[in-house]
Amino acid sequence: ALMLSLVVAAPCHSQIDSLPDTTILLSSFSGITMVDNFAVGVTTRGVAVLQYEPDSSMFIFRNQLFLSFSQATMKRFGDTLVINADNQRLYFLNISNLPSLEYLGSVDLGQRFADFTISGSDIYSAQWFDGIWRYHLSSFSSASFADSSMKGILVSRLEVKQDTLYALDEYNGILRYDLNVSGFGRF
């Protein structure tokens, strides 16, 4: 069985139940997020939902959404889970009714990127030496390039907290953008 080390109510170690044999579906996790007593994980076969059973201290397989990608990471924005597949395509899933997963759509940004974040209907992507690019998300299956910022030299990570976009520039440290102004935001 696969071992997980997750925090559920109190620190503990849990394992994934192996009956029925779920090891084929859950051969590798590249990320896990906890939602109440559910673990939602990105696997080599898509997205898996496991439910923690306190009596057995095990995560029991509940659901699988099959998606095709070789590498993926994920970020959670409220009830929306966004899968960054192969650093180019973003998949949007509704996780408000777990263990059910609702596929909302996907967008191909057409360019590989280091990281991404979302604020409102804008997607920001870290483009390494090309700064930060902003896309407008008109639906979960349509995004269009809006503009970019070339303030950073080597941008590799992004995060939005409240109305501020934080960007990690490998040469200059952390850059901040105020997103309360029109356009890209004030540096």
Q: How many β-strand runs? A: 17
Strand content: over 45%
Oligomer: single chain
Structural class: mainly beta
Q: Would you spell out the secondary-structure blueprint of this structure?
A:
Elements: E1 3-8, E2 10-16, E3 29-35, E4 38-43, E5 46-53, E6 58-66, E7 72-77, E8 80-85, E9 89-94, E10 102-108, E11 115-119, E12 122-126, E13 132-139, E14 142-149, E15 155-161, E16 164-169, E17 173-178
Parallel strand pairs: 2-6
Antiparallel strand pairs: 1-2, 3-4, 4-5, 5-6, 7-8, 8-9, 9-10, 11-12, 12-13, 13-14, 15-16, 16-17
How would you describe the overall organization of this protein?
- With 187 residues, this protein is mainly β.
- Strands 1-2-6-5-4-3 form a six-stranded mixed sheet, with no helix packed on it. A four-stranded antiparallel sheet has the order 7-8-9-10, with no helix packed on it.
- The radius of gyration is 18 Å and the shape is elongated.
- The chain contains no helices and 17 strands.
Name its key features:
187 residues, mainly beta, 4-stranded antiparallel beta sheet, disordered N terminus
Describe what is shown at a glance.
By secondary structure, this protein is an all-beta fold. It has strands at residues 3-8, 10-16, 29-35, 38-43, 46-53, 58-66, 72-77, 80-85, 89-94, 102-108, 115-119, 122-126, 132-139, 142-149, 155-161, 164-169, 173-178.
